[in-house]
Amino acid sequence: MNPNTPKENIPLLSDYPFDMDLVAGRTLIEKDNYLDYIINRPQGMKGYIINLTTRGRGAIFDGEKTFLADKGDLLLFSPQTIHHYCREPAYYSWYHQWIYFRPRTFWIDWLRWSSTENGIGRLSIQDKEEYQAILDLFVKIENLSKANDIFAKDTTMCFLELLLIKCAKFDPKNLEHKSHNSLDLRIDTVCNLILNDLQQNHKIDYFAKKVNLSTSRLTHLFSEQLGMSLTQWRDNQRMENAKKLLYTSDISIMSIAKQLGFDDQFYFSKVFKKYCGTSPSRFRHSR
């Protein structure tokens, strides 16, 4: 390893322990650089890794089992799945974005890709706009995962949830109903607007204007795509952030409520109990 290699690159090396809930980065392999070697983890890993090739070509496994990863190809390594991959020797480079994560329980259905090779899920994004949208999410997750911010982890997980939903829509088992099942870019935009400013209590017509939809159309489309109303989805994200603040800080419950867009502490407590099964004060005392 080059002694001048920045510490942020340490997760790219084969002996990195990956003992966190989420780690994200990019691997820029070029012929004969310090990353140009075979990754071999015969026991796999404890969590999942999702990988997007952005340049060059990668070779997964060897011999008769070999398959290739080109620009726009997504790979999903499940826990305990063998990792054996490298730059395809005929190509000068293999660049790929990656995210290691331990999923939330309700994500599992999105991680059951129907197209697999030796336990590795495979999808290919051919559309340029869709590819760019997927890449933008990878980059956003990478940047957020390195941020020193009390909300960073939960916000990162929210964007990862969006990424997994978008990927699931490209699964061959869903392509027959793609016109109904693809995550609409307008819904993606609305989710990003919410996540970027959870404190704001914008009404549905605010978001509808942002994506050039009527209020009724956005309401229907959001529920159809994500299985819940916009307000419910926003409250879900707020409650995840509230749990972290309650668990890791001594900020008053009233202040937490205000930070997350609730002017009324009692209403905040009511919503928290609905989503988490207990009151904010009891949740804090259980830490």
Give your account of this protein's structure.
The protein has 287 residues and is of the alpha+beta class. The chain folds into two domains: 7-183, Jelly Rolls, CATH 2.60.120; 232-285, Homeodomain-like (Arc Repressor Mutant, subunit A, Orthogonal Bundle), CATH 1.10.10. The chain has eleven helices and nine strands. Strands 1, 2, 3, 4, 5, 6, 7, 8 and 9 form a nine-stranded antiparallel β-sheet that branches.
Provide a short characterization of the protein structure.
The chain is α+β, with helices and mostly antiparallel strands and 287 residues long.
SSE string, helix = H, strand = E? EEEEEEEEEHHHHHHHHHHH
Question: CATH homologous superfamily of the largest domain?
Answer: Regulatory protein AraC
CATH architecture grouping of the largest domain: Sandwich
Q: Domains counted in the coordinates: how many?
A: 2
Salient structural properties:
11 helices, 9 strands, 41% helix, Jelly Rolls, Arc Repressor Mutant, subunit A, globular, alpha+beta, single chain, nine-stranded antiparallel β-sheet, 19% strand, 287 residues
